[in-house]
Amino acid sequence: MAVYVILSTLTDEGRKTLKQNPQRIFQVNKELEAMGVKVREQFAVLGPYDFVNIVEAPDNETIMRMSVELGARGSVQLLSMAALPVEEFVKRLG
Questions:
Q1: What number of other Cβ atoms are within 10 A of residue 23's Cβ?
Q2: pTM above the 0.90 mark?
Q3: DSSP secondary structure string, 9-32?
């Protein structure tokens, strides 16, 4: 499974939803699992993004479908980045 970093920013609609139902975050994580994306770690952060998620997925297409599905809801904007463990990065350089 490949690793990805997902940076997300809530829209006004997303903030309203989260305020009314904070548990929605965990419901979305279950929806991601059904799409083939496993959340490894999740952080709420300060700054230009609201959340940082470290996820695993079988391929870029799975992440693309997840991004389109979540983005189409209008509650969040996503920035998805493929990530490679440093050990693997160094190995591939050699």
A1: 8
A2: yes
A3: EE-HHHHHHHHH-TTHHHHHHHHH
Residue 12 has pLDDT above 90, yes or no: yes
d(CA 42, CA 20): 20
Give the max Cα distance, the chain.
Answer: 51
Task: Check: CB of residue 42 under 8 Å from CB of residue 55.
Answer: no
Burial, 49: exposed, middle or buried (Cβ in 10 Å; 0-12, 13-18, 19+)?
middle
Domains of the chain with bracketed CATH: 2-93 (3.30.70.920)
Spatial separation of the C-alpha atoms in residues 23 and 83, rounded to whole Å: 28
How does pLDDT run across 60-92, given as a tens digit for each residue? 999 999 999 999 999 999 999 999 999 999 999
Nearest to 78 by CA among 49, 56, 36, 44: 49
Residue 94 confidence (pLDDT): 84
Distance CA 67, CA 9 (A): 13
